[in-house]
Write a structure and sequence with these properties.
The chain is mainly alpha-helical and 109 residues long. 51% of the residues lie in helices and 8% in strands. Helix 2 crosses helix 3 and helix 4 crosses helix 5. This is Transcriptional regulator.
Length: 109
């Protein structure tokens, strides 16, 4: 059986594998393939700027609320309410993600 060898396993107190350390390039490649990476700039906007993930992404992408709302087929006011929400419904998260050109998982942080 072939096992990858380009990583380090860290054992827990019980002697079983608890963590795996992989080279950074491999880590990035795995996340890029999953489509779930969130740029540092977006994370900073969300946490330092106290923005919702949707607003942080929109700001990062240099879009207006009206532009995103138009892509979603809703009014700017309706989008503003969605963007301000910290607990989006799954269907809303999917629609916003599609309008922003990202995956729904990238709004879930």
């Amino acid at each position: 059986m072939n096992k990858p060898t380009n990583f380090q396993t860290i054992l827990g107190a019980d002697g079983r594998p608890a963590f795996v350390v992989v080279p950074y390039d491999e880590f990035l490649k795995a996340f890029e393939q999953s489509g779930e990476l969130v740029p540092d700039a977006v994370v900073r906007l969300a946490f330092d700027g106290e923005m919702s993930p949707a607003k942080a992404w929109r700001t990062h992408l240099e879009l207006t609320q009206a532009e995103v709302a138009s892509r979603m087929g809703i009014t700017q006011g309706a989008y503003a309410q969605l963007e301000a929400s910290q607990n989006l419904r799954k269907s809303s998260r999917e629609k916003i993600a599609a309008a922003l050109g990202i995956t729904p998982g990238q709004l879930d942080f």
